[in-house]
Amino acid sequence: MLIATWNVNSIRARLARAQKWLETHRPDVLCLQELKVQDADFPRAELESLGYRAAVFGQKTYNGVAILTRAEPTSVSKGLGDGEQDPQARLIAVQIAGLEVINVYVPNGAEVGTDKYEYKLRWLEKLRAHLDRHYRPDAPLIVCGDFNIAPEDKDAAQPEQWRDSVLCHELARQGLQNVCAFGLTDLFRKHVMTGGHYSWWDYRMLGFPKNNGLRIDLVLGTPAAAARCKTAWIDRDERKGQQPSDHAPVVVELD
DNA sequence: ATGGTTGCTTAGCAA
Fold first, then answer.
1. CB neighbours of A19 closer than 8 A, spacing ≥ 6?
2. Among all residues of A, which ones are annotated catalytic?
3. Cα–Cα distance between A232 and A127 in angstroms, integer?
C-alpha cells in the first residue's frame, strides 16, 4: 500500500503534473495540500478519470486539502472540528482499509513574533487535542502533510540560515514534538538516518539549483502503522523541470 | 535588512 503526501501549490496549476505522477506511481492514497481552489472548481473529473476518488476540503485562493484514494473511503471528515470558527481549510481525514489517514497543511507562520506564528503554534496544539479526542495511539493511524517544520537541524541544508525561521524555530519544533507525543513517529526516519534529504526548496534565490532545501513534509505513524512501513522516500525528481511545485512528494509503503 | 519567485487575482497577499 503506497501512501503519499504532496503540497502541489495550486492543483489547477499542477494538474498535468499530478495526473502524470498518479499514472507513474499509482499510489493507493495521495494527500494534497495548497489546492488554492474552492470545492466547485476542483478538477475532480480529471483525477477521477484516472481511477481515483477525491475527498476535497477546498478554499478560494489559499490553503485547501484533498485526499485521493483508489478505493472508496469508509469515512471522511474535514477540519479540526473543535467548534471554533476557522475559515482556513487545513485538515481532511479518511478511513480506508482499516487505516486512518489525516492530511494536514500546518500554517506556515510567516515570521517568529507575528500573529501568523501564534496561529501556527495554536493550530499545532489544536491538532494534538483533535488526536486525543478522536483517535487512538494503539490503532493504525497516519498523520501526513506539509508541517512547515523541519524536525531537526539535519533536515535543513543550511541550518544556521534557517535557525530563526518559522520552519526551524524552537517553539514550532516543540509543537511538532507535542503532536508526536500522542504516539507518532516520523516514518521517513525509520528508514533513513542521514541528513541531506529535503522535500521543499524555495522558488527564490535558486533554492533548488543550490539544493538549499528543508524536509518539512512528513509522514507520521502510530506504532501499528510504523510496524507495517517497509520503505519511505522523497521524489526529488518531481521538483525538476518546467513549472514544478516548490514541494516534492513524500511516499511511504505499508504492508 | 532586503530581495529573490510563484500563484491567485488583478495590487497585494501568502508562501
1. A46, A47, A50
2. 105, 146
3. 24
Q: Which three cell numbers stand for residue A170?
A: 524552537
**Residues A166-194 pLDDT 10s:** 999 999 999 999 999 999 999 999 999 99
Q: How far apart are CA A1 and CA A78, in angstroms?
A: 23
Give the H or E element holding residue A100. Answer: strand A99-105
Nearest residue to B15 via alpha carbon and C1': A108
Given the DSSP bridges, would you call strands A99-105 and A91-96 parallel, antiparallel or unpaired? antiparallel
Nucleotide nearest to A166 (CA to C1'): B15
User: What is the reported pTM?
Assistant: 0.98
Sheet holding A65-69, edge to edge: A53-57, A65-69, A29-33, A2-7, A250-254, A229-234
Distance A195 CA to B10 C1' (A): 42
* Domains recognised in chain A with CATH numbers: 2-254 (3.60.10.10)
